[in-house]
Amino acid sequence: MHPSSCDTFVALPPSTEKQCIIFGKNSDRPCDEVQEVVYFADRDFEAGEKVECTYIEIDQVAHTYAVVLSKPAWLWGAEMGSNEHQVCIGNEAVWGRESADGDEALLGMDLVRLGLERADTAEKAVDVITELLEKYGQGGSCMEDEGSFTYHNSFLISDRKEAWLLETSGKHWAAEKVKGGYRNISNKYSIKTKIDKEHPELRKYAQSKGWWDGKTQFNFSTVYSFTTTARIEAAGSRYCEGKKLLKKSNGHITAETMMDILRDKDSGINMEGMFMTTGSMVSVIPTDPTLPGVHYLTATPDPERSVFKPFIFVKNINATNALKETTSPSYGADDPVKKKPRFQSKPDRKHELFVKHELVAAIMESFKDRGKKITENMRKLEKEKMAEMEEILSHGIEEPDFLVNLFSNCVLEEMTVYGKS
């Protein structure tokens, strides 16, 4: 298996319809991995408290924001998600001249969750992630497997007014601000000469390694990328195809446009095989701060065979029971990830929706006519929900308590569709 990874997209006015920002990501992971969708409420903490991430423990902050996350069930962090302030983050695996084979530290997915829990704007998320990177570093296997699969990370981060692209190499990094139009990232460095923030030693370090002569214009992706590009060739292809698909709808990009892009198999964006798309997310964030953001998440593999289900941050969401149909079993201290040596066994991490989706996917594969009918019914449900959300995106929320179980209720409706198959 040659590991591949994800594609992340953002579109801002004037590339979108109406005054909103559209964020989207496919999480491409090992095909046998379960991705769960979970909610954590905002919390206050005492001074000196710690938080246990996937591999290491770090200092906790005084307050964390409420978050909805799409995450591999075995680890603490997340592939993508949003917080109550409508900050959205997705990460990508990137490889370059700097070795990624370091000690266990923070995973890029841990940094996604930490950025969402601690930042109320996209720019603050850049600061949070880079400060944590400097203090704790990044490293550790990114697969639930004894074989080491390691990488550096890039992040696409958006809020109500702008987006930021953050690319890292070890503890070094560069960030670019995106004020309008569209942007996508894959598994390759793409920040060139427009750098709006950077590690203070970024250029000096590159010069000391002989990667940059200190005289020619500094181009981050040229300086820090592999000298040979064989490993990132597929990512380059997906990146170009994703850019073309965004350009095709420029000025008219909607949530539906983004879902279509994430479902596109010809481009390789909707990945199949040993590495496949195991979870997808599309967020619609109005620039008007009085209007809610709507976050659509699948919690199931292959967006072509999944329903994008809406989630809205409202008060009174019960953190204990929220999203229980897409929350995987917890094994606590007995989890093989927590015991050293790690990954000596793999427990069953399938959540309720995953189990039912797996059965239906098998039916769809074996019986084409039945599969077509199931897909039609799934799309019908999705369109109904999106129509309801358009009303909320345009006029706001009248009865917040009606939306407390929005996502879970849609999951139940999705499972009803499966039951009719």
Explain the layout of strands and helices.
Elements: E1 7-12, E2 20-30, E3 35-40, E4 43-44, E5 50-52, E6 57-59, E7 63-64, E8 67-72, E9 80-83, E10 88-94, H1 108-118, H2 122-136, E11 152-158, E12 163-169, E13 172-178, E14 181-185, E15 197-198, H3 202-208, H4 220-224, H5 233-248, H6 255-262, E16 275-286, E17 294-297, E18 309-311, H7 352-366, H8 368-395, H9 406-419
Antiparallel strand pairs: 1-2, 1-14, 2-16, 3-8, 4-7, 5-6, 8-9, 9-10, 10-11, 11-12, 12-13, 13-15, 16-17, 17-18
Plain-language structure description:
This protein is an alpha+beta fold and 421 residues long. It has a single domain, classed as Penicillin V Acylase, Chain A (4-Layer Sandwich). 28% of the residues lie in helices and 23% in strands. It contains 9 helices and 18 strands. The protein has helices at 108-118, 122-136, 202-208, 220-224, 233-248, 255-262, 352-366, 368-395, 406-419; strands at 7-12, 20-30, 35-40, 43-44, 50-52, 57-59, 63-64, 67-72, 80-83, 88-94, 152-158, 163-169, 172-178, 181-185, 197-198, 275-286, 294-297, 309-311. The strands form 4 sheets. An 8-stranded antiparallel beta sheet has the order 3-8-9-10-11-12-13-15, with helices on one face. It has a 6-stranded antiparallel beta sheet with strand order 14-1-2-16-17-18. Strands 4-7 form a two-stranded antiparallel sheet. Strand 1 and strand 2 (20-30) form a beta hairpin. Helix 1 crosses helix 2 and helix 7 (352-366) crosses helix 8. It is globular. It starts with 6 loop residues before the first strand and ends with a helix.
